[in-house]
Specification:
Glyco_hydro_3_N_sf; Jelly Rolls; signal; 6-stranded mixed beta sheet; alpha+beta; Immunoglobulin-like; Glyco_hydro_3_N; Fn3-like; alpha-L-arabinofuranosidase activity; TIM Barrel; disordered N terminus
Amino acid sequence: MVKKILISFCFCAVALVATAQNEPYKNPDLTPSERAWDLLKRMTLEEKISQMKNGSPAIERLGIPAYNWWNEALHGVARAGKATVFPQAIGLAATFDNQAVHETFSIVSDEARAKYHDFQRKGERDGYKGLTFWTPNINIYRDPRWGRGMETYGEDPYLTSLMGLAVVKGLQGDGTGKYDKTHACAKHYAVHSGPEWNRHSFDAKNISQRDLWETYLPAFKTLVTEGKVKEVMCAYNRYEGEPCCSNKQLLIRILREDWGYDDIVVSDCGAIGDFYYPNHHETHPTAAAASADAVVSGTDLECGGSYSSLNEAVRKGLISEDKINESVFRLLRARFQLGMFDDNTLVSWSEIPYSVVESKEHVAKALEMARKSMVLLTNKNNILPLSKSVRKVAVLGPNANDSVMLWANYNGFPTKSVTILEGIRNKLPEGAVYYEKGCDFVNTQTVFSYFDCCSYDGKKGFKATFWNNKELEGEAVAVGHFSEPLNFGNGGNTVFMPGVNLHDFSARFESVYTPKESGEVSFIISADDGSRLFIDGEEVYSEWHNGATREKMYNLNAVKGKAYKVVLEYFQAGGEASLKFDIGIKKEINYKEMADKAAEADVIIFVGGLSSSLEGEEMPVDLPGFRKGDRTNIDLPQVQEEMLKALKKTGKPVVFVLCSGSTLALPWEAENLDAIIEAWYPGQQGGTAVADVLFGDYNPAGRLPLTFYASSSDLPDFEDYDMSNRTYRYFKGRPLFPFGHGLSYTTFDYGKAKADKKILRAGEGLTLTIPLKNIGKLSGDEVVQVYLRNPGDKEGPIKTLRAFRRISLEAGQAEDVLFELPVSTFEWFNPATNRMEVLPGKYELLYGGTSDEKALQRLTVTLKK
């Protein structure tokens, strides 16, 4: 009898197991939607809500693994260790080569898949290790004072649309496979471009329907309707009084209803808390009310902690479980689309080997994109390219020997970066390059650093050890090595190292300092929160408490050749985190002394501009001309201008290599310097790319995706989102350098364009043929640009980009450049319907290698009803 019972029990157990294995959500042959609905109905309300936060916990009883939705890939896989670092987004825009950008992000998604599966094998599921990437940033860079604008593709809606589309398709794949490669995210929807300092309370209001539909929405519409982007991130600020993450017009009427979007909307990080936090938007009384409104409006996933209150919101009748189901369905479906619940043998992307990460081919692509991004702004008397037989070159400036500057923000960590100084040295014989930092970015004092006199275990710099507690205790979570002065911050939610908490952590930095000369040297520290310094085991400095400490110095009378053991300890206790540390001599800049030394060279190269330590996302920067990462003016910092003026007085040619994520007012520099190159933040191969352009190994052809204004007085109020007198499309003044500007070492000649028809009937497009010839002595690229103007619309843009193509031509080569212009080319704002429509009328097509009116040719076409 007992035997019969046992046999019967075993049969039942086997049957139950078989049934469990056959549950529809576990069946890879079903669609992601079918699987998501089946899994959803098996979840409790609490389990559903737990999946609506970026750090979604495991639900073991259903086999749902933990997942963190937050990952970044702005210009390479970011914040998770080794990765290829390409030029910052604004530099990618300057290539005017959307095909090359697509190829770049196919590489990025290869590295993303390889890293993801490697993390999975190791059981690592925390932040920055998933397949959902919160990029691209397709906000319109309407004002160059916005510090975060470097993450965008510039000021033009069409250029932004095509670049964003290239990113999405490169990340997500072509859609023909069983599983998506990764998921991209269009952000920050929709009317968002600073200021940073008040973004948690700012209301972008009184915006015309024309500006909304003609400027702020086109790129989002393109990525949703053409790119099939799988995520959209709503912005921090309010739009017309209502927070973007609960904005009914943006999220329901436009995104969901007009555009038919049925994928995930994610909040920017902490944006739901802004609904009810004091001194933020304060549009909602409680977390429950805020969370319910956000979900009802269509925000499915929260980056933050407010959605924990959704249980309370359901109990109070603020939201129904059916609404929660809609959001959770989208979240589950996305994970099925990525193959996260299936065996790797079914997911072809899992076969991408880890060896692709920062492979030789990927680094070569980083160099190609850096070269393509270089914009030659001026070149008087053809001073460039420089001869490699030059006797001596002087290199100065705060960006010359800074590898971290090359990476910008939202970056990965390359194994090797080539600084601009190193790139120049690699072109010339040993001893031909004299280098002096000369000045800092803003301060009239500068540190003459001795950091390179420090080494640990034979490597220059400091060993770093991190713990995810404030006591420097237990098992270390990360160990690294830093060969340049320490400059850390958690702005933009950036961790100090992969694996380290954003808050509540500690670190120890260790090295041996061996001075080359005897004399006083300063150990320069600023930190938020605590820091303390030990030299040869003795504590010589301590600010071991919560809160920020302004820059402090400990002075040591160092003896030449003596080895000093240096240990710096740090802890972070919540909120903002920062740590800066250097060793050297700090003194007032002597411009004449620096210039006199440089005057011994045949040519002077000054590498300056800005840095992502100054401009960026909601940063703790309080310096003249800067506020929270934004700029209060667009002038080149005075200390750099004074240095350039002193260098020019030497009578030697002066070349300015400008590194920045935005434009600057450079009227003196444009008038007086021999050449200016805009290098942006060019990625890990930036130094080689700059040197290739300087010495003629690459003919520059980048174009400006932004207008360079001559003065801050050209700009309207930063907080005014009206497009009047903004960007090349509406600016009535005279720019210093116009949108689309960029010089070459060769010359291109444009012939008379021909259209296959001058009168278009309803629904018709046209073929535009533009004859182009390289009439110079060098091969090179030209960026052919086509603009549209509606002469009958006095309220609309002066002109607006409608097509472009980057063309390579050998010296003497000619080509007819063909543009197939679809009927959508002639979409224009219709004030009668407050929408973009193809409107009948007479239009001008303007074409050339810039947006400058004087350099453009034109032809007229007529659209009939």
